Amino acid sequence: MCGIVGAVSTRNIVPILLEGLKRLEYRGYDSCGVAVHQDGELRRARSTARVAELDAEVARDHVQAGTGIAHTRWATHGAPVVHNAHPHFSRGPGVSEAAVAVSGRSAQAGRIALVHNGIIENHDELRAELIARGYLFSSQTDTEVIAHLVDHLYDGDLFDAVQRTTVRLRGAFAIAVFCRDEPHRVVGAREGSPLVLGVGDGEVFLASDAMALAGVTDQIVYLEEGDVVDLQLGKHWISQRDADGRYRPVQREVRTVVAHSGAAELGPYRHYMQKEIFEQPKAIADTLDAVPGISPELFGDGAHRVFSQEIDSVLILACGTSYYAGSVAKYWLESIAKIPTSVEVASEYRYRDSVPNPRTLVVTITQSGETADTLAALKHARALGMAHTLTVCNVATSAMVRECRFAYITRAGVEIGVASTKAFSTQLVGLFLLTLALAQARGLLSDEQEAAHLTALRHLPVAVQGVLALEPQVIAWSEEFARKENALFLGRGLHYPIALEGALKLKEISYIHAEAYPAGELKHGPLALVTAEMPVVTVAPNDALLEKLKSNLQEVRARGGELFVFADADTRIESGEGLHVIRMPEHYGALSPILHVVPLQLLAYHTACARGTDVDKPRNLAKSVTVE
Predict the structure, then answer these.
(1) Residue 282 annotated in active site
(2) What is the pLDDT of residues 575-607, one digit of tens each?
(3) Which of 152, 182, 414, 551 has the lowest tally of Cβ within 10 angstroms?
(4) What's the whole-model pTM score?
């Protein structure tokens, strides 16, 4: 989603700003821009093209300076057009319309330049107030309101003006601001949206993600909720807002962080999504690498006492693909660890009345660790008195890991494709380990069972490699799917969430409308949709529900529907008229969902390729969803 980079230095920082934006491109964006303090003026370039085009424009216009900010925007308020792109300039009383070029470059357009991630909920009332004071608006964004408000409250000290501004904002934000009248100074603030400070040799940086600063500095400060940071040449100050709205100086730890660039090589693959699908055996192996045996302490010191004595239920909070991982985990947790488990869509959880239980283990699942809805849901659960928190996350330095008492860090590596693949499969591995750890702490896991589960887990990379070998057969199916506009996905038991994930993948990147149902629900409504033009994808493992599933398949065939079945080898489901079968290499018991999701990922990927869509950057979507 939106990305921020800022810098104060004695050297030209424009290449650093643009390189930082390029490292954040994989998150998805609609527009980009950069603003600098050059020759006593504010100068800006903005574009609805890619950062590479912005880079060429900046070079052509000789934009260079030691102080500046840059941004990639994923549109929330206002369409993805140039005049809504960041950075925004203030346009206070006395700044004429002619002084501002609405598109492209501008100079001397007010005195404040600002970029913003997040959503300001009270922007309408602030806009009305500022218009009454003579401020001119050139965009439909909530961000421009912040720039004008900082300008209105500015009295010679930008740090003070930003602090006074943030007190008046409601919502989530990370901002970076500089002022025409104060060269070599940038001020940042965060509330509900991530922001980090980078400390260099005589220079300082801001970014929404440490990855943006890879190769520039590895000295990182993770700003906390309510922090405002003042960046000047070679130094910085941080203040934090207390419960009374007053700011007090604070110290934050400087950490050495090795941040890897998102610009990984594609190698022999057409897209990052394909590469990441094929990286799953290694990602799973890496995630299991530090697991010598099952122990609650895999999740942090003190976990055994909490798991065995202080909890009696589990609440899982997640969004999107991570929610489906949590839905699989519910089956595991209740069948293996025998602990009552509920799974909530994080974006809904905090907006309904629920019955809190202080003996609940609150588990969040997030690839980035910065998902705004999931972070907000976690804080809501804590506010209700549920203090036992744990996250399964792919980023060890993320806000989610810092907010939770316990954590399991998956080792999927950087995932660039918007549609999650290897992050999902490693989340499932982490959640299965959590299931076993809880079962052990509750006296429900024998030594023999532990050994059997560990053997199955360690064989997973080889088993997934066997599924990946099915790619040619999946490609053949994808040619037919590419001509369709709708699809149904069916699964039963713990494979129902896998059907949901398969449908999500297909709709995300191919733009084919897809829905998933528990197969037993077919006759309760969805069967009305079944025709020869509606492909029905079915996940068919050889488990206790197989015979019931076969009956559901017959219901589809009797209505002229065309079935595409991913079946375990010993299910005795044979190809025939209107029934296409791809056989999985082996049945994998409780871990079967991790294998069965892989061909669904491949089906979505190759269908999207056949339709010619932008696989890695599907329309309207972003990789890291840092706004509500």
Answers:
(1) no
(2) 777 788 898 888 888 999 999 999 999 999 999
(3) 551
(4) 0.79
